[in-house]
Amino acid sequence: MTHPTLVRRDVRTDHPLDIALHLAAGALPVLPLRAGKVPFGNCRTCADNACSGRPNMKAAGNCACPRPCHGWAAATTDRDVLSSPAWAVAWSRAETVAYHPGGAGVTVVDLDDADAIAWARENLPPTRTVATTRGEHWIYRGTMRSANAVRPGVDIKSSMSYARWLGTGTGIMAPLPSVVRALVVKASAVVRPVRSAVSAPAGDGQCPHRSPVFLERGIAMAEQRITEARTQVHATVYRTFLAVLSAHGRCGCLTEPHIDRLFTAAQAQGETARHCTEAWANARTSLGL
Questions:
Q1: Is 71 helix (H, G, I), strand (E, B) or coil?
Q2: How far is it, in rounded angstroms, from Cα 215 to Cα 194?
Q3: What is the pLDDT of residues 239-277, one digit of tens each?
Q4: 115 CB-near residues (< 8 Å, 6+ apart)
Q5: Which of 57, 85, 107, 125 is most buried, by the most CB atoms less than 10 A from its CB?
Q6: What is the DSSP string of 247-278?
Q7: Quick one: pLDDT at residue 42?
Q8: Listed residue (116, 125, 78, 123) closest to 100, CA to CA
Q9: What is the pTM of this model?
Q10: 183, 151 contact by CB (below 8 A)
């Protein structure tokens, strides 16, 4: 059975909140996106992405809001929440609407360019297709783990992820094929953090951070910034390394596993181990570490 909203006609309105309410009425969990396809922090504490724009998960050390207020975890079908004063500012500044594919019971194969589309037509079964700015979304019935850059120009958006709402598309939604699930397994097996003699700064042992949560939040935010980069990836990686080292490079709390996470995120975006190593070294040199 296909998701009810994904087979309904498109809503005839340009206002993001009106679109969101229409989709929520069809049981599609939605949330607002600001410029750059980035979620809002839908509470005062998290305004302007102060908490990294990621879901409220204790394990990730993110915000202490009483309920998830941003990222994919904010997606909801609750009309009262969507129309609440707490979200009013976000909707007034929103440029578009996103939805949580996993919450809708679907998986989106995000094809970024013509080469990715050509690959999909040769290797994936036909399904519901939605045109995007540069490529297409192929939507399958079923959920799985999300992952970026599973192959050139291909991202998987399902659980713990969000996708822009771009219309109902065309075609009949097919069951999620094993070949799509295999893409994430293969990508996870291939991407390994290679640090080529990179190490964490020794620091002076005086850590100004009040708790490990501050560091964890910074690393999670850095991973997300790298993962969401769609252009100028190399420059984004360098600037992110610079920001992390600027905040955490002098006190000794930055560890090898933290660096592994940053290098893994960068290499999943196509950066080579050499580029990562050079970016890290250049950032340390720039900061005098």
A1: helix
A2: 22
A3: 898 888 888 887 777 888 888 888 888 877 777 777 788
A4: 152, 153
A5: 107
A6: HHSSSS---HHHHHHHHHHHHHTT--HHHHHH
A7: 60
A8: 78
A9: 0.62
A10: yes
Separation of alpha carbons 174 and 132, rounded Å = 19
Distance CA 196, CA 10 (A): 51
Structure letter (DSSP) for residue 87: G
Q: Which residues pair with 110 in a beta bridge?
A: 137, 155
Number of alpha helices (DSSP H) and beta strands (DSSP E) in the chain: 10, 10
Q: What is the pLDDT of residues 78-129, one digit of tens each?
A: 999 899 887 888 888 889 999 999 889 999 999 999 999 999 999 999 999 9
130, two tokens: 């939605």
120: number of Cβ within 10 Å: 21
Measure the CA dihedral 140/162/193/261, to 10°. Answer: -150
> Among residues 182, 100, 155, 134, which one has the least CA distance to residue 268?
155
Residues 6+ apart with CB under 8 A from 48: 41
Across 189-208, b (16+ Cβ under 10 Å) vs e yields eebebebeebebbeeeeebe
What is the rounded distance in angstroms from the CA atom of residue 240 to the CA atom of residue 245? 9
